Amino acid sequence: MKDAFPYFAQISTFVTLTEKGLFNEVSRLKLDVSSNVTKALIGLPLRRSIHAAGIVLAAEPLNLPLVPSSDQPVIEYDMDSLECIGVVKIDVLGLRTLTVLDKIRKRVNVKTMPFNDGATFELLGRGNTCGIFQLESETARNLCRLIRPSNLEELSVLLALNRPGPLAAKLEKTYAERKRGCQRAEEDMFPETHGVIVYQEQVMRLAMRTAGFSAAEADLFRKAISEKDPRILEPALQKFRDALHKRGYRPDFVEKLCDVLVKFAGYAFNKSHSVAYSHLSYELAYLKAHWPREFFDVYVREHSSEQFKVFLAVQELRSLGYEVLPPNVNFGGSEDRIFRLPLEAVGGIGESSARICRELAPFSNLKDFAERTRLPTSTIQRLVWAGAFDELYGSRSAALEDFEAFQKGHDPELSLVAAKVFGKQTERKQKLSYDEVDLAELEERAFGFALTPFAFENEKKFAPLAEVFASSRILPVAVRISKNFASDGYTIARLKDRLPDGYYALILAPDGRIVQHKKLDEVQRVVYKIENCFDERDVERASELECVETVLCGKKITLFGLRPLVDWYRIEFI
Q1: Global confidence as pTM
Q2: Which long-range contacts (CB under 8 A, 24 or more apart) does 551-560 make?
Q3: Is 394 left (phi over 0), alpha (psi -120 to 50) or beta?
Q4: Cα distances (Å, whole numbers) of residue 195 to 46, 169, 203
Q5: What is the pLDDT of residues 497-536, one digit of tens each?
Q6: Nearest in space to 12 (alpha carbons), one of 92, 61, 105, 81
Q7: Which residues lie below 8 Å from residue 106, measured CB to CB, with a gap of 6+?
Q8: Cα–chain center distance at 272
Q9: H or E element at residue 367
Q10: Cα separation of 410 and 99, whole Å?
Q11: Among 30, 95, 127, 137, who pairs with 141 as Cys (CB 3.0-4.6 Å)?
Q12: Residues 343, 383: contact at Cβ < 8 Å?
């Protein structure tokens, strides 16, 4: 590549004047500017910056103006100006995803993978997509359960639908209902996407097929409806409407189509972009489906400074049946179905500090650790709070007690020697005592979230608490609440709303918000009421206390021991 295209430059981008920005500038400079001048200035360049990803490559020296004061070659033109003179701009994206993907593949020694793996699409279809490129948001997880991709083509569609434009037009719901056979397209021009406009290329194809535009006219139309400027948009839409009316399309269909296009086109993907992204998403999902321990070990280390992402990783591991334990300064071997958080998950422990600990381990006690690693006392304190010395001392309380002595410069062994040699009385101090809430609060200070679950002594179970966060769903959970922490015995989370301590049935949202609550002993059953289109793949096995109510063929039916996967339901406590 370097030999073929030795000349390289970044491109400019410009911050333009907005009405608000112009008002602020005028106020700051204390100028009196007429409304006509204001209108003329809006949209003009204000200051230059460098495009985040855009570059130009050339085989010969670039005959283009360069920014004179820049250390690197930067073309003075922006991307639109370059396009006008026939210069192709290339976007080079720096994605952390590629680093994560490369590290996991090397860890598990995978060079190639099949692109039709059932376990991978099962994982995607449940919305358990923590760590999966483009699919980590709450909206994306809901879309995964709605779209249920079963191949790369459908995964590409999912990624394209997960954009502001298609979502504003509610195209995801239309696509899902047509895929399930609950709705038919009026004009099925795009059978590969169930008649739904998903890609930019389909806008062009639609303009060519319905309005008779040429390929060049269709591309201009696509660009025009991507613009927010009514002076460009309205004439293009009117030309499109006129062409459709001449061809005999119904006025209501034409207006509905134009409305969808306006909402859609401004933020839509082109197909090649979406297909490329779908391969990255699939590869990560494949590795996660088959090597979850290795996947999350790399993921947590790479995202250790993002506490909520580490919290979600913990929840998803627990929803997969793993016991997640605190870090261990002496490391040790891995056990089946146990995932031990890396030291990097503790606030203030970076990759270099963790490496020092690994190289110097094992340690005999906290003092030995401090003297050999030379880590700051505040960092050691967070490790103690996190439980990284639990196995060395047998309990968190013992580790905390020894840290307090270390912090004060008190050496218990030296005191015992002094007592024997000099007959000095050693002060007997009452041992420190910590309850479950104390430990949860210390872990929250170390990780950003509580890790160790509370004991839960109750036979009533609904959805797993971890699944609320792992798949980003509003679900009913049976929990014990203590000082605003909720635990079902398998995981623990802090709630956004306060309730008195006790045992509760909660309808809980993924952000920790309580939608509804009752005392646990007052609830006998949970009912999910589905009101929209669904099929048998949209439900999963649940506890005997859960059931689904819906209407099929005009009859109300109840399905016991099931829970919906799609987010088209209301929950009621009985």
Answers
A1: 0.84
A2: none
A3: left
A4: 43, 14, 12
A5: 999 999 999 999 999 999 999 999 999 999 999 987 888 8
A6: 81
A7: none
A8: 23
A9: helix 366-373
A10: 46
A11: 127
A12: yes
